[in-house]
Amino acid sequence: MRRRFFNKIGGGGLPTDNFIVFDKSVSDPANITISEDGDFLYRLITSGFDRVLCKSAMGGREVFVCRLKGSDSNLYIDGSPAVLTGPEGDVMVVFLEFWYKWYKVDDNRFLYHFADHDIDGTYIHVPKSLVGAYKGYVSLNRLYSWSDVTPTTNVSLSDFRSYAKARGTGYQVIDFQQHCVIAMMLYAKYKTRNLQGVLGPGGATCDPATTTGSSNATGGADTENEYSKYVCGLGLEGVFGGICEFVEGVEINNRVWKITDPDGSIRNVNAGTVSGWIKNIAAENGPFFDVVPTSVGGSNLKYYSDRYYQASDNSLVLARSYFNSNEYGGVAYSGAGKYASSQDLTFGSRLAFRGTISEVSPKQFKKIPVL
Asked: Which residue of 80, 143, 197, 216 is 20 to 30 Å from 266, comparing CA positions?
């Protein structure tokens, strides 16, 4: 029997479990509370993002994955050694499937409720997907997620798209929904929007780009007050900092973000017209958890603790993560001032996959050839 999700309050239904509440009237980044009841959200933020090795199936559209040990990515889940440098596939992170819905609590507070199914037909679907555990690396005009390489920079989003598609059907660069899920889950996990203050600002650089793999020995663990290596969160090495990451699924025209979701639906969201420290984002008014800056006026210790950069041109694209390692760029950082053809030493991207994901045992996985 499914858990009862709602309690009638003042004539309206509000969830009683598996939710995260934000208070817009509070400038302290720690304006977040989460429900104490409900196993689904707890499982999602603590064990919903596992590292795997990934190989493509013949014919495309499907990949096979095998879990790595949570405490040490150098080992498969059964303890046998794993090769993370390419011969055994890409190192990726599984983003589990879930549904969510925005609710208004009062004039200042709003919440997002999470579930393992569409409760009433109006919940927003986040399909299962894969995101590269490392910053992207290009070899022979193909985009990879490998350890012990220098992430590729000074390449345009147009070319990154092409290099990802060259891997086969379903491969792409990290997209807007995945970017928003990263923020949503880390906000819920740590109950603060100042994630640099928890995970650390890191020590990764863009020129030269810091070599991937500094997190291998600690597996999918998040960093704590990291100042020397890549910052890690949800199994993602360099979850922010190091180099900016071009994002798929957003076209920006005079500060209007045209967002394409995984199901192909398109919507427009008006972003803020001034650059600065982010004070508000579109997610505050739902229904989507859109990390779209709508106003500025914060600081590194207030509101979202991240910066927003915008321009008034058309056909611009989005970049997340920020470059080098400092207080400017966490999970909400939004760089909206480059074209799809722009190239910059501070910009790279990250491999992702959407399609059929089949998990196999280490023994089975090792028999699958790398395509």
From this structure: 143
